[in-house]
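I have a small job for you when you get a moment. Would you make up a two-line entry for one protein for me to read? No commentary is needed, just the two lines. Write everything out right here, beneath this request.
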Amino acid sequence: MKKLSMKASCLCGCIQFKTNGYHRNIQNCHCIQCMKTHGHYAAYTNVEEQNIKFIKKKTLKWFRSSKRAKRGFCSKCGASIFFKAIGTKNISIAAGMFNRPVKLKTIENIFTKGKLDYYKLDRHIPKFKRYS
C-alpha cells in the first residue's frame, strides 16, 4: 500500500475525481466480467471509498454486474472506471483513469483461469486462479 494523492478522469472528462490515502498496488484481473467490461483484462488499484473526492460526476452510472458487485462507468464516453464489492468500504479504480505518473506497480494477475489465448502473462508477476 502506498499513500498517494492523485487525480483521475474518464475519457470525456465528465467524471473527474481525486484520491487520497493508501492505494493498493495494481492487480490485473482476467475474470470474464472484467474481460467483457474492458474488452481486455482490467488493471485496478483499490482505495477506501471515503478517500475519493468527486470534482464532476454527473455522468457516473452504476451497473449491478453480479449479486456481489457493481461497476461504475461514464454514461457519455462509456469509460469503465470502478468496481465495488457490495457491503465493503473499499472501491477498485481502473488504473488507466489516473493522470501520470501513477507511482504504482503491477503486483499480480488474478482470475487467470479466465485469461484468453491471444496474450501472454509476464512470468515475473505472480498469478492466481482466484484472488491472491
In short: Helices lie at 32-38. The radius of gyration is 14 Å. The longest strand covers residues 15-23.
